[in-house]
Amino acid sequence: MLQQRVVERGGAPALRPDQQEVGAGAQRRRAHPVPTDHAAARGDDRAGKSPSIHIGQITGPAPVFLVSSLTSPEGRGGGRTQPGRAFMTVKGVFPRRRPPAPSAGWWAFTLPLALMLASDYKLRSRDVDNAVGGSADLTVLVEIAVYGAAALYLVWKFGLRAPRRRTTGLLLAAWLFCGYVAFSALWSPFKSLGLVRGVQLLITMLVAHTVATRATPADLRKLAHIFVGIVLVSVGIGVAHPFPRTLHTETRFNWLYVHPVIAGVYLAVAILLVVGYLIRWNRPEDRLWHPVVYFGALVVLTGALVATGTRGAALGCAAGLLVLLATARGPKGRIDVIVMGAAVAVLAVLAFSDKILAFVSRGETTEQLATLNSRTELWSLAMDAFREEPIFGRGLGASRGLFLDSIGLGGGHNAFINALVDNGVVGTVAFAALLLTLGFVLLTLCRHRTLRADAGMLLGIFGCFLTDSMTTEGLAAPANVSSVWLFILVAWAETLRRQGGDPLPAVQRSPAETVVDAAGWSGTTVTASAQIERAAEQP
């Protein structure tokens, strides 16, 4: 009776057993709805409107299953057929192992890298006085042109319009910080430098926001691997052709005219990315290279980081590795950190204690080590400058030139002190809010098994930056590798959040419920119909 009612209300008549078997096979092969993120990334207006298939329920247009009898290659001569099986030939010498992942386009991983390289990779050395004074040479003009081209491309491709989805708290915190820092350039004592850096910071945030709302995890995996490849090529350039070094960097490794401190940050981030993909034993599909390649890259990058003599980056990399291993693999990773970390620490102290002490001291005197290479004196002067303008700060770029005459150093050499001097209490609160929000979001994402590998890797990079920011100001200053990577972390976290967390557990349904849902009946209607039928059968 129930099956008869389903047919009368518009349901399809029951199929024969052979038709049901072939139709189910065709449904499993051909019912592949287009993912929403894939359609949104390529600009399809039908994103989210494709038919979705669930257990016992089909929404959208009624599917039509075509059953064809295809002749197998062995039976072409004899007319032997196998219904429902397709034989495909692969063209090309190197066929793909899997179909290409959905992507928003080349811009999603090219523009952030272009901003990073234009800011740090230089072919000439320049005095701090010329940089603070605002004089522009060919290298500066090329850097400005790269930032301008990135902004123009995004405006040309996507236009300037209101966001299509609600802005999250993380993106809002990032925009508030960037907006205030750029606005503070109006009262900076070095207006030319401040205005240029402020515009660069806003363009960086524009790129990060576009990546956060349109990119896919595959795009960010490409970005990470291309970044590691660029750093490996840079190490090769530094070994093959050492550029002239200054008096303080004669014994420290670098490439081009990149300062060893900046080179150390590049190497530390690359090491964390390599380790983050190397330990994904349960998700090999996330790797783009063979594990042997990752291991070889790890050896080269670690040796280069030690050769730079950058203690802050090395300490940050060690802290980032601890955070990464403790979060990227869940509770098992925490046990590995406790066991392996203790063993490696004891072995390193016993076998390489002399080399570790030499790396830490770096040939400096006891007085220099006590003052952290004159950083404590600089921080005392910075706090005096902060007390003069405590609320709104002295303006963007002020810390680059305030201490040149008294101590000969530019910048605050500490991200939080740099934020206090340049942006005051208001800017420092905005900076702290951004960091706290980013850390909270990454910790939340680590709770999901499907997102834990990426979120733990990002949390390790975030921990590396926080540790390194104790001796460098890059995290709070625009147009450098630390600043650009901070906003890449924001964009990556938002991309992971758009993917969703762990799927809900499947609910086992009875065959009767499956038939009812397919016919469009509600539970109340079926119950009432069954009661009426039983009442009619009673005498």
UniProtKB/TrEMBL annotation:
Keywords: Ligase, Membrane, Transmembrane, Transmembrane helix
GO molecular function, one term: ligase activity
Annotated ranges, domain O-antigen ligase-related: 297-432
Keyword Secreted in annotation: no
Ranges for region Disordered: 1-57
Main location: membrane
Membrane-crossing residue ranges in chain numbering: 101-118, 138-156, 168-187, 193-211, 223-243, 255-279, 288-306, 335-353, 425-446
One Pfam family named in its UniProt record: Wzy_C
Biased composition (Basic and acidic residues): 39-48
Membrane topology, as annotated: Multi-pass membrane protein
InterPro entries noted in UniProt: O-antigen_ligase-rel_domated, WaaL-like
GO cellular component: membrane
Subcellular location as annotated: Membrane
Protein name: O-antigen ligase family protein
